């Protein structure tokens, strides 16, 4: 069975990173609730391990929602004085899927190696047992899609 059976590409993605967020679940919940109340759909979410009581929280969203997201997040500047909001636009999300990944070690290693050899820089990675999603620069999309298709014999 092939380890990777499908590759999905999502264009016009942005990533927002909130730096210096207190590691309090009620605060994190209120951040995502605020974004939801503004009609903003969040996709990938990545959180760093706590350091001195703070985390960094990154998430992806449709590029067109960035202005609304910044507006929604600005209310947290009062509550979190050292909050920094970083935005990276012009990203593409690649989602690699395969049921066999669940039982086959090395698929992530192979994907990281393949992308590294092509010089594709990763902005964020999220995984499940059968899915790996990468945020990359839009300019690297065509190259990354081609090398992944070649590596895993995808059409």
TrEMBL record:
Pathway stated in the Swiss-Prot or TrEMBL entry: Amino-acid biosynthesis; L-threonine biosynthesis; L-threonine from L-aspartate: step 1/5; Amino-acid biosynthesis; L-methionine biosynthesis via de novo pathway; L-homoserine from L-aspartate: step 1/3
Report keywords, A-Z: Amino-acid biosynthesis, ATP-binding, Kinase, Lysine biosynthesis, Nucleotide-binding, Transferase
Entry superkingdom: Bacteria
Q: Which PROSITE patterns match?
A: ACT
Name the enzyme group at the top EC level.
Answer: transferase
Q: Where is the ACT domain?
A: 16-90, 96-155
Q: Has the keyword Nucleotide-binding been applied to this entry?
A: yes
InterPro entries assigned to the protein according to its UniProt record, in alphabetical order: ACT-like_dom_sf, ACT_Aspartokinase, ACT_dom
Name the catalysed reactions: L-aspartate + ATP = 4-phospho-L-aspartate + ADP
Does the keyword Ion transport belong to this entry? no
Q: Where is the signal peptide?
A: none
Give the Enzyme Commission number. Answer: 2.7.2.4
State which residue ranges cross the membrane: none
The Swiss-Prot or TrEMBL record describes its family as follows:
Belongs to the aspartokinase family.
Name of the protein: aspartate kinase
């Amino acid at each position: 069975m092939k380890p990777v059976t499908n590759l999905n590409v999502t264009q016009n993605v942005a990533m927002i990173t909130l730096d210096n967020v207190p590691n309090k679940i009620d605060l994190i919940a209120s951040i995502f609730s605020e974004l939801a109340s503004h009609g903003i759909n969040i996709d990938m979410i990545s959180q760093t391990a706590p350091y001195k009581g703070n985390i960094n929280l990154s998430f992806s969203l449709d590029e067109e929602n960035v202005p609304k997201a910044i507006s929604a997040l600005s209310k947290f500047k009062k509550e979190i004085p050292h909050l920094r909001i970083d935005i990276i636009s012009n990203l593409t999300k690649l989602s690699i899927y395969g049921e066999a990944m669940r039982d086959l070690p090395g698929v992530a290693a192979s994907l990281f190696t393949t992308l590294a050899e092509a010089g594709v820089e990763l902005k964020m990675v999220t995984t499940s047992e059968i899915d790996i999603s990468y945020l990359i620069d839009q300019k690297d999309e065509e190259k990354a899609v081609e090398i992944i298709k070649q590596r895993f014999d995808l059409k």
